[in-house]
Each structure stands twice: as C-alpha cells, then as structure tokens.
Amino acid sequence: MRLYLASTSPARLATLRAVGIEPIAFAPGVDEEAAVDAAAAAHPEGRLPADEMVQLLARLKAEAGLDAAVLALAGLSPASAFELDGRVFGKPHEPAIARERWLAQRGRSGVLHSGHWLIDHRGGRVNGAVGRASRATVHFADDIETAEIDAYIATGEPLTVAGAFTIDSKGAGFIDRIEGDPHTVVGLSVPLLRKLVHELGGRWTDLWNR
Questions:
Q1: How sure is the predictor about 71, in pLDDT bands with cuts at 50, 70 and 90?
Q2: How far apart are CA 10 and CA 187, in angstroms?
Q3: Residue in 113, 130, 112 with CA at minimum distance from that of residue 121
Q4: Pair 149, 170: CB distance under 8 Å
Q5: With bands split at pLDDT 50, 70 and 90, how would you rate the model's confidence at 27?
Q6: Per the count of CB atoms within 10 A, which of 45, 51, 80, 155 is most buried?
C-alpha cells in the first residue's frame, strides 16, 4: 500500500520519512484562495472557521491527485492555519506581514489547525474517504527581541508557513511549549494519520517502506 502525498512540503516529507514512510509527493494545483473565498461566501457566518477551512483544502488537494493515487493524503502548510484572537492566518508571504504577526504573537498563545483527508483508491476505484482536523496550542516565548524577529524574517523561513513560524527549523527557539500533537504544527499529525488508515481498513505498518 503506497501513500501519495498531495503536498511537496519538505517538513511533511521529513515527518513521513522519519516514521518509515516514503510517499510519492505531488503538487495538487488547487487554487486555495478561490476555494476558501467561495466556501466562505456560502457559509452562514460569511467566513470559514479554521478547522473547516483546513479540512476543505485537505479534501480538495487529495481529490485533485486522485487519478494518480492508490492511497492519497493531504495535510500541512497548504492545509494548515494559525488562529490568534479568533482570527485565522495562513502564510504571510510578505516580510512586513510576517513582522506584524510576530510582534502580535510573541509572549502569547495561538492554535495551529491542520486538515487531513485520506482517500482509499486501491484497485483503481474509490473505496472510501475519511478526514479530520487536528489542533495544537502553541505558546510563544515572551522574551523574543524585535531584533531576533527581524533576523528570523530575513531568513525567509516564516514567509511560506502558516502562522509565520516553524518548530522543526529556525523558529523552534521562539516557542516555549506546545499542547497537543507537535506533528500538527509541522502540518501532518502522525497519530491521526494512523487512525485514518485504520478507519479505511488498512494497517499502519503496511505503509512502512523505508
């Protein structure tokens, strides 16, 4: 049973490889902003809650790769979002936006949401699909200097990740602790993936190929 990953995120790939899985990764080519905007316009509240948003993107990306997939999974940064004070943030892209977010979140706590969608496509047909969002609370250090924030942003790392931070690279030193599954913050919850595989009638160990 081979795992097809609808993401080219290095962090997701490293996470799967560390637990014995070498996936076939591909870029799903989903217009995330258009999908979220359309779903938000149809939502009774006029916006999508964070967990619904990441699940929508995870499902769309998994389905986008269905033709190639035997067992397809969509998870991390394209399907992740950071929530602070009830506001949902994706990737900042711009240094000024990343700086603004870091000045607001240092010394505080927020919630990282990651969506997961798994499609069983063994035998060339859809045998089932399951998905859930995971969440983890991230507590940022309160002694982060503005000069440190500027130096971190200058590396370019926070520009392409939800919440403008990582825990598996340079941003790790700015985080005091995490409540919940740390893999969620990387963008792919390993324990949740195992449960989803079981729900589709598979075995976690069947995915081990490294």
A1: low
A2: 11
A3: 130
A4: no
A5: confident
A6: 80
Extents of the domains making up the chain? 3-207
- State the residue for tokens 């998994």: 62
Mean pLDDT of the chain: 88
Residue 131 to residue 60: CA distance in whole angstroms: 12
User: What does each C-alpha distance from 196 to 86, 186, 193 come to in angstroms?
Assistant: 28, 18, 5
Nearest to 66 by CA among 32, 117, 105: 117
Query: What pTM did the predictor assign?
Result: 0.86
pLDDT over 90, % of the chain: 54
List C-alpha distances in Å: 182 to 114, 115, 122, 178, 200: 11, 14, 30, 7, 24
Tokens at 134, concatenated: 């995971």
Rounded Cα distance, 98 and 91, in Å: 8
- Tell me what pLDDT residue 46 has: 82
- 8 A C-beta contact, residue 77 and residue 162: yes
